[in-house]
Amino acid sequence: MGPSDRMLLVEITERLKRLGGAVDGVRETQTGIERRLDALEAEAAANRKALKASARTSYAQVEDLMALYRLAGPAGPLPRMRGWAAGPELTRFLAEEFTARGGARVLECGSGTTTVVLALVARALGTGQVTALEHDPHYAAQTRAELDARHLGGWGKVVDAPLTDVDLDGERWRWYDPDLVPHSEIDILLVDGPPGPTGPQARFPALPVLAERLAKDALVVLDDADRPDERAIAARWSDAHPDFTAEHLPHERGTLLLRRTPETDEG
Question: Which of 8, 134, 182, 214 could link 218 by a cystine bridge, Cβ 3.0 to 4.6 Å?
């Protein structure tokens, strides 16, 4: 092989190397494109799933609102149910539970939308009473205004109950003044206060303080049950009160139910 042949061979070899590098580059580009397409497809599928879930939620909330209007009777617009207010799903559940009992004596820790709606249901049924404990004068006045605007003074009321120190087995809590809690028996206890900034597990005292006032078939309802503090409260309540059976409802912020286990006759 002469010098010219060797030079030609070297040139061909270099060209083949460059061609191989270009092919590798094309393969890498193709792989990157395929990965990007896979990622876009997965993102689109996730978006479709989220849109379907949002549509189902919106439809369910419309159903809940329509059911509430039927349960509350011809009373005009219902109060707002967004933001910090209880959502339509929880409010509907409470209204249906109230109705199924043929009316009930309800005590709420914290006032608001549910106070007004349950008072409307009580008036529609012609029986029942809703009492809400409220430590914040602004919210107390707001709920009273909603009740007064609908002429519900005989069915729902708000008790001004400032937070005070409450001792429970050596632990001190900031909770509603127990001396201001009505002494009537409680069929449904809705725990939606005090607010979280009051302190860790701020809503815990409700059951220990009020357990002796609960009816035999009482229902305890804890709102915002998906939050860490409320999960801890639920666990403590369940441990201390084995006569109650716990149930979780998949509402927007989670709802915990505690129902007293029915007593069985022996012999």
Answer: 214
210 and 238 assigned to the same domain: yes
- For 74-109, the pLDDT digits (tens) are 565 667 655 445 678 899 999 999 999 999 999 999
Same domain, 241 and 141: yes
At position 61, the amino acid (one-letter code) is Q
Q: Quick: pLDDT tens for 162-198.
A: 999 999 999 999 999 999 999 899 999 999 999 988 8
Residue 265 lies in a domain: no
Which domain does 167 fall in, by range?
A: 79-260
Give 205's DSSP letter. Answer: T
Gyration radius from the chain CA atoms: 31
Q: How much is the pTM?
A: 0.72
* Within a domain: 241: yes
248's CB contacts (< 8 A; 6+ apart) are 225, 254, 255, 256, 257
What SS3 state is found at 192?
Answer: coil
